[in-house]
What does this fold into?
Amino acid sequence: MSDHKRADKAEKLLAVKGMNDILPPDSARWEWLENQVRELMASFAYRNIRTPIVEPTPLFVRSLGEVTDIVEKEMYSFEDRLNGEQLTLRPESTAGVVRAAVEHNMLYDGGKRLYYMGPMFRHERPQRGRYRQFHQIGAEALGFPGPELDAEMILLADALWKALGLTDIQLELNSLGQPEERRQHRAALITYLSQHEQLLDEDAKRRLHLNPLRILDTKNPAMQELVQSAPKMMDFLGAASLEHFNRVRAILDANGLKYSINSRLVRGMDYYNLTVFEFITTELGSQGTICGGGRYDYLVEQVGGKPAPAVGWALGVERVLELMKEQGAPTQDVAPDVFAIVPDTAAYPVATKCLQALRAAGLKVQMHAGTAEGPGSMKSQFKKADASGARFALIFGADELASGEVTVKTLRDGVGSQSRYPLNQTDQWATRLQSEV
Ligand code: ATP
Ligand code: MG
It folds into this structure.
C-alpha cells in the first residue's frame, strides 16, 4: 500500500490534552496583545530575552523549591536519550532568565531590565483558564535592591492593563520579609497549624514540617477559614523590611494605585522575599489571578551567581485574553485593504510585481489564488473579494494590462466607483488608497 492510501485510512491525530491550537481569527488578538506589550516594555526601557524551552531539571528543583506544587507534581520531565541528563519543559521562566543572566555575566555592569513571552508547561487538570501548555509574559529586573523597582514592576503591569483596555483588576500586596523573619513566622505557623491538625488535608499534613508557608497557598475551600486566622507574616517583619514595604506603598499611593494587603498571599514558589503581589479579577471564576510576582533577592545566588537582588512578575496570556473578551474588547480587524482579481493565469507575473509594490507602500494585500485548472470566473473572484472584507478590488484584466494599467474598484462605501492607475507608478496612487482604507 502506498503512503498516500495509508494516509486516507489513518486515524485522526489530535492535540495533546490541555494544549491548545491558537487559530485565526483568535490569533490576531494574540498578536495585538504581544505588540502592545512590546511597545509598553520599550517605554519602560525593558529589553527582550529569549531562553530555551527545555532546561536542566535541577534548575527548577533548586529555584522553585522541592516542596511546591510545580516541582512535586506539575513538571514535564524526561531523560535525554543519549546522555541521560534530566531535562524539563519550563514550567515558568524566571529560573531560566536568572540562569541565562548568570551564565552570560549580564550582571557585572549594573542592573538589567528584561521581559519575555512564551509557552510554559505544567501538568495540571485542564479547565477554563488552566492548561498544560499555556503562555506567560513576564518582566524581570535583576540587580536592583531598592523598593522603587518593586513599585516600577507594579506600575508596569498596571500600565499594561490600561493599554489593553482592562478594568476592575484588584491588586493584592504582601511582604514575606527576609529569611530570618520567615524562620520566626514559620515556627509560629507550625505551632498554630499543629494545634489544628485535624483540619489539615493530606497535602497540608505532609507539608506541615517541610514547608508550612505553602499551606497558606492552599486551594482547598475547606481550609480557607483555618489559613485566614493563621499567624501573619506582616507581624514578624523587622524595621528594614517594614521600611521597604512602606516605600513601595508610598510610590503606589502617589500614583493613585489602589491595593489591598493580603497576609495569605505567599505565591507558589519558594524564591520570593519582601514584596509579593498579585493582580486578580472576579470575572474569570476560580482562575482569577492574571498576574503574580515579587522580589527574589536570593535566587541569583542559588543558581550559582554572585549575589544580586531581583524583582519580577509573570502574567497568564490566556487569562488576560479571556478577561478582554469578558469585558467586550473588540475583535481585531484582520481584513486586507486590497483584494487582487486576476482573470487569467498569464497576468500573475505583472500582477504580483504590482502587489509587492503596494505592500511595500504599507497596504495589506490579498491575491486571488485559483485551482490547477485556472483562476476561475470573474464572478467567483468578486465574491471572494467581498468575503475578504477588503476595501478595494484590483482587477488585472487583459484590457488593463495592454495599456499598462490596473483597475481599482471600491467594494465598501461608495461601491462601484472605479478608476484606472498606471502599473509602473504604484507609489503615486498607493498613498491615495492608503488614505481611504
Ligand atoms: P494558580 O494559583 O492559578 O495555579 P500560580 O501561582 O501557579 O497560579 P504563577 O506561577 O504565579 O501561577 O504564574 C503566573 C500566572 O500564569 C498566573 O497568575 C496565571 O495567570 C498564569 N498561569 C499559571 N498556571 C497556569 C495554567 N496552568 N494555565 C494558564 N495560566 C496559568
Ligand atoms: Mg499553579
